[in-house]
Design a protein that fits this description.
transferase activity (chains A, B); homodimer; 1% strand; mainly alpha; Isoprenoid_synthase_dom_sf (chains A, B); metal-binding (chains A, B); Farnesyl Diphosphate Synthase; globular; Polyprenyl synthetase family protein (chains A, B)
């Protein structure tokens, strides 16, 4: 798959994600539910619909395709990861957290609605993620579905994404029991592996589980996921330094101002660029057991490294 | 089981819950985790340890016992429900929500720590709940475990607890797109069935699933759970009007001040008391297929109706 081909594929997957989310985030009460408050559903729709790269669902779908696994099930598992991603952005943007006003070029959810609604919409999306994974439509085998639940819960929890967000706030010197200030490279890598890496690696592991990967194949995909997650975050840190706010869709230059722990702060811009090249090569190399079948995932890694937004 | 016997049983279960939570909320990183930030774990422990009636875990355990199901697995499923309950209290207490200063006689989590930590600790507990359910220690059969995940996600989500909290805020007139003000009885019942009823009914349904209940048995337990959840909330509303803050462990009289939708507001104190008696009888009657085996659950319903805190 050439570079433009992976972009086309991402667009197709993103359109499927958008359509599927539109269906899932419905006002109609589901089985066993009493009612769905319209303001809450509208808030969830505001946060989740209307674009985004949908990178995480694409990772589930492209990984599952390596094994010719059912695409509809992979898409559904991808929706669950996207809901967790969406909830994390809503809560990260809150006044008590990063206090952001813009997200993808629009007012953040608590600005467009209100803070209470934003907290609850995030809570509801996190819960919905596990609801989606639990349904037989994701995979006929309960063992596989419960494996997806375990994978996503671990990636999102206290030892993963939420823990990483906590370390990030601590690095800013937000808490009196932690000094904050510049972090060394090892601390930044650990923080980023948790805060963003875990939710890049998880959809790849979930795609592998849906495809019934062998332990060797899982190990190769885990190595790919780790390198890709790290590359994603380096690209993000570089964008915050070098990107235009209009293209990125949110305020740039915020990391340095907030004293955020970034790899650019630890390695400098040139050092971070070199690291990005290394990580992309690592991600690509990890896929060697799959040969040319994994060219889509390789191109995706290149796309992630070179993205401008 | 006599009344004092159910109190003793609740104490025993509460001690087991406390010990199990102490183990689960550990600083040690679990399998596949990078690290657990100590401040976040301390916050989760502050919110979850140190007492509480542990009613929801007791409901899983006592229901599972009707079927002689494994108690250790039931306790673990009960921990998951307790984590969801704990997260909901943390988020409900936040300044943007109910802005409460006290919970069980101690400063609320965002007062004892800070708002960002409280948001993340709630998020982490919700995530942990599904992690707990996913592990084989809860039940050897993946079909049963995935059923528990589905049950809990539905009870906690947009059509359940979180949706109920949203309706509750709307009833207070918090949002410009909803008028708020006094709610009629039907609206209060719907709101309360979602906000608190769903997370009383869910552990009963989960105990039934762990025990391999027949459809008829499930239906009986569902009826019990609905009546018990409603009774719990009426008792709570009455406590807010009649209870002493020192006994209840949080500010009382707050519901009326906030214009909360309560059954006391809709029916008056005497009407609410009569309703409580009816609901307790309903809960008890629903269990008739189980005969005397269900006396523990009957006594529990009486305990819930008569509790002073």
């Amino acid at each position: 798959m050439a570079y433009s081909a992976v972009e086309r594929r991402l667009s197709t997957i993103a359109a499927s994600v958008e359509a599927a989310l539109d269906g899932v985030l419905s006002l109609e009460a589901g089985a066993g539910e009493t009612a769905r408050p319209s303001r809450l559903v509208e808030a969830m729709r505001y946060a989740m619909l209307g674009g985004g790269k949908r990178l995480r669902p694409a990772l589930v779908v492209l990984t599952a395709e390596l094994f010719r696994a059912d695409t509809a099930g992979a898409l559904r598992a991808g929706l669950a990861v996207e809901c967790v991603h969406g909830y994390s952005l809503i809560h990260d943007d809150l006044p008590a957290m990063d206090d952001d006003a813009l997200r993808r070029g629009r007012p953040t959810l608590h600005r467009a609605f209100d803070e209470a609604t934003a907290i609850l919409a995030g809570d509801a999306l996190l819960t919905l993620a596990f609801d989606l994974l639990a349904a037989p439509a994701t995979h006929p085998d309960a063992d596989v579905r419960i494996g997806l639940v375990a994978e996503l819960a671990r990636a999102a929890g206290v030892g993963g994404m939420v823990g990483g967000q906590m370390l990030d706030l601590a690095a800013e010197g937000r808490f009196s029991d932690a000094p904050g200030g510049p972090q060394d490279e090892a601390a930044v890598l650990r923080l980023q592996a948790m805060k963003t890496g875990a939710l890049i690696a998880a959809p790849i592991a979930m795609g592998a589980a849906l495809g019934g990967a062998t332990p060797e194949q899982r190990a190769a995909l885990t190595a790919y996921g780790r390198a890709l997650g790290a590359a994603f975050q380096v690209a993000d840190d570089l964008l915050d330094v070098e990107g235009e706010a209009a293209t990125v869709g949110k305020a740039t230059g915020k990391d340095a101002a907030a004293g955020k722990a970034t790899l650019v702060a630890a390695l400098g811009v040139e050092g971070a660029r070199r690291r990005l090249v290394d990580l992309t090569a690592q991600a690509s190399g990890a896929l060697s057991p799959f040969g040319a079948d994994a060219d889509g995932l390789r191109d995706l890694a290149r796309f992630v490294a070179e993205r401008q937004a």
